[in-house]
Amino acid sequence: MGQSNHNLASLIGSRICHDLISPIGAITNGLELLDMAGGMEGPELELISDSVGNAGARIRFFRIAYGAAGEQMLGRAEVTLVLDDVSRGGRLQLHWSPHEPQSRACVRLAFLAIQCLETAMPYGGNVVAAVEDGRWSVTGTSTKLNVDPALWAGLSAPEALAQVTPAQVQFALMPTVAQDLDRPISTEQADGHITIHF
């Protein structure tokens, strides 16, 4: 059975994230045991603990954004836990408005949209993901936006997208995933705001 390029990439993403989360969890458990034993304290342990926590959060985020979606539904508690962990100590504050469980495929698109917005908000800000009558909007608000017009045009017209770097791969993947779900993407920008609709 053949696989499309982006489906194959999703399976690879799922596999990598699945294999990485186990050792990250083991390190976290080891740190907890050290803390309970009282054998190690200080800034070194705190630095390791923070780094492992951040790595685990990013892997869980990437697993949803870049992994295979399937038919699974994701509840608000699960999604907000991932977003809270990812934004802890960062420049972006991430807010999840939907209260009802959402399809993993739509959550995946929202996470890819968050990553697109992250590139336009180098100084930080707030990102809100919301859905109304089945139509999603992911809006970034910042005092200073840095929008690359070529990348953003590629979201609604992927054929116009030039080569992307690894840090920009979300701009190439999001339109392909949205097309598979029959969800056209549009964007709008106003002073201090940029929104992705799908």
Your description of this structure?
The protein is of the alpha+beta class. The protein has two domains: 1-68; 73-198, Histidine kinase-like ATPase, C-terminal domain (Heat Shock Protein 90, 2-Layer Sandwich), CATH 3.30.565.10. The protein is built from six helices and seven strands. The strands form two sheets. The chain has a five-stranded mixed β-sheet. Strands 1-3 form a two-stranded antiparallel sheet. Strand 6 (186-190) and strand 7 (193-197) form a beta hairpin. Helix 2 packs across helix 3 (76-87) and helix 5 runs parallel beside helix 6 (169-180). The chain is globular. The mean pLDDT is 88.
When the domains are counted, the total is: 2
Characterize the overall form.
Answer: globular
Largest sheet: 5 strands, mixed
Radius of gyration: 18 Å
Q: Tell me the CATH architecture of the largest domain.
A: 2-Layer Sandwich
* Low-pLDDT segments, ≥5 res: none
Proportion of beta-strand residues: 15-25%
Going by CATH, the homologous superfamily of the largest domain would be Histidine kinase-like ATPase, C-terminal domain
Average pLDDT figure:
88
CATH class of the largest domain: Alpha Beta
Strands in their spatial order, largest beta sheet: 2-4-5-7-6
Stated plainly, the CATH topology of the largest domain is called Heat Shock Protein 90
Q: What structural class do helix, strand and pairing data support? A: alpha+beta
Head-to-tail CA distance between termini = 30 Å
* Percent range of helical residues: 40-55%
> Could you spell the SSE succession in H and E letters?
HHEHEEHEEHHEE
Number of helices in the DSSP assignment: 6
